[in-house]
Amino acid sequence: MAGPTRLLGALLAFAAVTACAPSIAEPVPAPAPTTTTSTAKTTRKPPPAPPITADRGRQSPGVVAAGAEAPYNYGPAVVSEGGRIRMWWCSQLRHADPPGDDLLYAESTGPHGPFTAPDGSPGQPVLSGSGTGFDGKHVCDPSVLKVGGTYYLYYTGAAGEHAHGNAIGVATSPDGVDWTRDAGGRPIVSPSYDTTRENTYGAGQPSVLFVDGWFYLLFTDTTGRAAGWNGAGQFVLRARNPTFLNHVEALGERGFEPVADTRKPRTRSVVDAFSADWMYVDALKAFAIAHETEHGTTITFWNHDFTGNPVPAVTIPGRWREGPGLIRTPDGHAPVSPEDPCGRIPLDVVRATVDGAAAAPTDLGHFGLDLTNVPGCKTADAARVLNGFAVPSPEHTVDLVVGGKVVRVERRSVTARLATRILDRRPAVVDELPLAARVPAGAKAVRAPNGQLGLLLDGKLWLVGAEDVATLNSSPITAVTQKTWDAYEQAGDLRR
């Protein structure tokens, strides 16, 4: 079950080139500066914003991951978590029962690898066919999400060979390694059977992310009404429940609308492609969809309600065969640039690069670039990416962004200890954030019996992580009883 592209053979190369064009946003030329002359004065419009460009192209020097003796390795899900890059992908191992597609797992300190599994192997199987049911023989195309301490694995399952039978299942785990099938072991999305095409793949290749309390599911359905002639197309469902068994909405021509179940007609495709992956870019309040085109992986951007393309598409060049996996945060969001969280977006993928001896995709490699001069953080909601960053203050102090609010710190040395990073420029959106507190030098610090430390600002308690924060701020530390500590109004957490 190496994916719909394996069924179409040479047809994919043509489809990937021609079918993606309608979904790619072309850059709009910036207007030239103009002047308006009057007898009183001359008014000049501000200069146009610099064009969005790509820089810092990168790729791994070789193969970053492969299952031992596996005939193919592709379709990865990649998560950056706790200083590790964690990866799950589709493969096939002879010692994993039953014979068929398996999901492997390995991790590394960086995207260049090498990736190693907890058992010391290049990749250990963490989910295989159930032996019965819709996923009896094959499990493939993983997408991994972490919400509320639980890992969710969405995957393509098949009982046998292709006959419009592929469907999407879900499993849960406390650690991302030991998985238990959810939803009673039944599929959560099946083919819609809107129409019959030569491509008999069915529904699969899921990619799931979590935004504002919604689970968003991007997936392939070669029987969907809005799919292309060869079955290419990406459809979107969303639900409050991770199993998509109730209160489901489908993206159609009029936006998201409630549907009775996940098999309702597929009336809108957001990109003409197979084996896509996506993430949410908070700085833009937009979705970024990765899909393969002629010269590499193209990233197409859709705004929050799928009514337009906020920035032009960009292509990460290099060789590829199938299945880009975006490096995402555990909840499926774009990593934040530490130097320019509003204007720079790191785009990194892992993808199969060649067809191996089994004539199937393998040799996973890392490729990436940065999109820069991006017009991000235009609203206070989009400015959530600034949480933990500090910026220059209009009062010759430093403003620390905490939970959508500003804490104004008198001493830069204190801010450097509290902040993820101090930026050189102040994004305009910070002026819209409310001022929550000021940290003057010498503000009183208190310590609880359990060692917790906080600053008292206007009588309210702000937690800090270490005693050196108080030292840098010349704040005397007073030990208090637990009763006194509990009586303080908890205002916020400045620990990082």
Automatic annotation (TrEMBL):
Gene3D superfamilies: Glycosyl hydrolase domain, family 43 (2.115.10.20). The keyword Signal applies. The lineage of its organism: Bacteria, Bacillati, Actinomycetota, Actinomycetes, Pseudonocardiales. Keywords: Signal. The keyword Signal applies. Residues 1-25 form the signal peptide. This is Beta-xylosidase. Residues 25-59, 111-130 are annotated as: Disordered.
